[in-house]
Design a protein that fits this description.
The longest helix is centred in the last third of the chain and has 16 residues. The chain contains 10 helices and 8 strands. The structure holds 2-phosphoglycolic acid (PGA). The site of 2-phosphoglycolic acid has 13 residues, from strand 8.
Length: about 240
């Protein structure tokens, strides 16, 4: 069981230096304690954001390679992320899986390398609409979960139904609850208490319902995390619901 909700801001390939400074200033002023807030900017902003982040916000990256050094043009390594002050890294976001063709075999290597370097992976899993509609959801999720092992702890699992990402559509709360239970059951032994957060069009308007589900330990927020007011509202809703 987690003591505080985990609220992670996945900025994806958005923001330049100027906009990011304003956003971080607002977050620093309003984040406070009571939630584990993680900001995941693009690589180009990691260094400048690190120097501005307040104590209550942790830094993470959106991806990394599984080698630490070498001739891998365009890649960023786990030890380079540690060096710049990152604590977390997203591994296996659906955009990496589906746009860039990352499969479970590659993601397993990335998880191992990230943990070896000392990063905490936020490992994303989720099914496409087609997989859901053709009854393959549980098989797909199982295959994605099967690469997790106790030696990789600590890590966070983020369940993001792909059809709910950036679409404004949100899975109904019963389905989310059932899916989180399914994931929890698959994480046996020491992994039984791994935090499982939800992502996919999380907004202030639906955050209360999502936070109220006791199977959900937090949120991975994309679009709404680019707006300080919306993101702070989501954090506050989770804090309120999870601490009462
Ligand atoms: P979204 O993105 O909140 O814009 O749907 C979530 C994510 O992709 O992590």
């Amino acid at each position: 069981m987690i003591d505080k909700p985990i609220i992670a801001a996945n900025w994806k390939m958005n923001l330049k230096k100027g906009d990011s400074t304003k956003l971080i200033d607002n977050l620093n002023n309003s984040c406070g304690e009571g939630a584990n807030v993680i900001v995941l900017p693009p690589f180009t902003l990691l260094d400048s954001i690190k120097s501005k982040l307040g104590n209550n916000i942790a830094l993470g990256a959106q991806n990394c390679y599984y080698k630490n050094y070498g001739a891998y043009t365009g890649e960023i390594s786990p030890v380079q992320l540690i060096d710049i002050g990152c604590k977390y890294v997203i591994i296996g976001h659906s955009e990496r899986r589906h746009i860039f063709g990352e499969d479970n075999k590659l993601l397993s290597k990335k998880l191992t390398a990230a943990r070896k370097a000392g990063l905490i992976p936020i490992y994303c899993i989720g099914e496409t609409l087609e997989e859901r509609e053709t009854g393959k959801k549980e098989m797909v999720l199982s295959m994605q979960i099967n690469i997790l092992r106790e030696e990789l702890m600590p890590f966070i699992v983020a369940y993001e139904p792909i059809w709910a990402i950036g679409t404004g559509k949100i899975a109904d709360i019963k389905t989310i609850e059932q899916t989180h239970s399914f994931i929890r059951d698959k994480l046996s032994g020491q992994m039984a208490d791994v935090p499982i957060i939800y992502g996919g069009s999380v907004k202030p308007e639906n955050a209360y319902e999502i936070a109220s589900c006791d199977r959900i330990d937090g949120a991975l927020v994309g679009g709404a995390s680019l707006n300080a007011n919306q993101f702070i509202k989501i954090i506050n809703i989770f804090k309120e619901v999870k601490t009462c």
